[in-house]
Amino acid sequence: MPDPALPSALPTRRRTGGSLLLHLLAWVLGALVLVWGSFVVVGFRTGLHEADELTDGHLASVAAVLLNQRGEAEFLHGGPSGQAPPEFRSHDYQQSLSVLVWNAAGRLLTQTGLAQVPDFSPEEGFSSLTLEGEPWRAFARWDAEHQRRVMVLVRESERDDLAWDIAGQVAEPGLWLLPVVALALGLALRRGLRPLYALSEEVHALDPRRPEPLSLDEREQELRAVVEAINAQSLRSRAALLREQELANELAHELRTPLASLALHAGNLRGELGPAEREQALNRIEQEALRTGHLLKELLALARASRTELAEARQDLDLAALAGQVLADYAQAALDSGHELALSGSERFMLSGHPALLELALRNLVENALSHSPPGSLVEVQLDAAAQWLQVCDRHGAVPAPAQARRLPTLGLGLGHRVIAKVAAVHGASFGHATPPAGFQTCYRVSFGTVEPAAAGD
After folding, report:
1. Domain boundary among 311, 340, 363
2. DSSP string, 370-426
3. Range of the domain at 341
4. What CATH number does residue 434 fall under?
5. What are the tens digits of pLDDT across the range 381-416?
């Protein structure tokens, strides 16, 4: 059998959205930068604080060493304030310290360094001084006999330089390590998303004509739900294609007979026919034209059912009101054919479904009942909202048949029931024969509940 018609070219993959890898990487790096930045700020402030503590400890240590010195030894390079000592700095963290020593009477005994001599004060401990407009950090302490007072000073600028240098050394690794971490995270995320890339390739390789289910073996747990959904959709697509293929073959076969008959009888009209034979040929052409038109109508109805199943969303509706509307549309046809139409059962039958499809199924049921029952029959639509079913039954000889009434032509295609069964399948319902109520001859039911009627015949 040939496959049903499909588009000549499948749509190619287009990158309309962003990359999932870049999306994940951006969020991970954003969170990392936020946390890392917090650590860098904390580390930087900690470096400043610890550098200040280190400098203060250095001042206290020098003062303690000098207080343990005996006598009133002078510094080799002592001299008047402002005379700079020779530079012996050989280390980045070496600082230029100034030392001042007073006796108990407040007389300056000796000094070294660039610091100006501050006013004498008996206080001990750390202090911040401003000497000739320049800030200094100082530490002063008396010896055990309270005979000598030593003060050690360092410029605030040197102290701050040391603090910033230490803080920068603490924060710097976090700055140059971030690009390395970003690269490593990118490679790790790309490797971690490899199953998703593989799944996308498998989905793209699926043949819409013969979709094979994707394997669930060794599939990651997070992707199992996606794979199951894809497999379910593939099965539905495959089933829809098979149904359309079968119906197309059946319709093509059914069309051959009326079209051949039309051609044959149209050719006979060109020959020499008697009035009775010509009338018979014209009637035959009319019947075959009606048969062909009805067949095409059913074909369009099936196509409409397929489109509606995929495109239209369900909505709440009253099946009883819909049935009443259908019966009103067939009132004139029933009057002409000598039939009577009736609606019985539940006054309201609320259902979630497609109104267009359900109306199509109801019309087929009513039309089939009118066509297959003789004039004078009662065609009744019965509803039971509690049991969730709708059925159309006919009772022969229920009403007097008018003399001019004629039975509606029966085309015998058997496609009306196929349309109804397909609409029922769309709504998760079933369709088939049902046991007729007392007094009725034939009954067909669409069951939306748990009761499963027999399968519909052709």
Report:
1. 311
2. HHHS-TT-EEEEEEETTTTEEEEEEETTSSPPPTT--PPPP-----HHHHHHHHHHH
3. 313-458
4. 3.30.565.10
5. 999 999 999 999 999 887 776 656 565 555 444 567
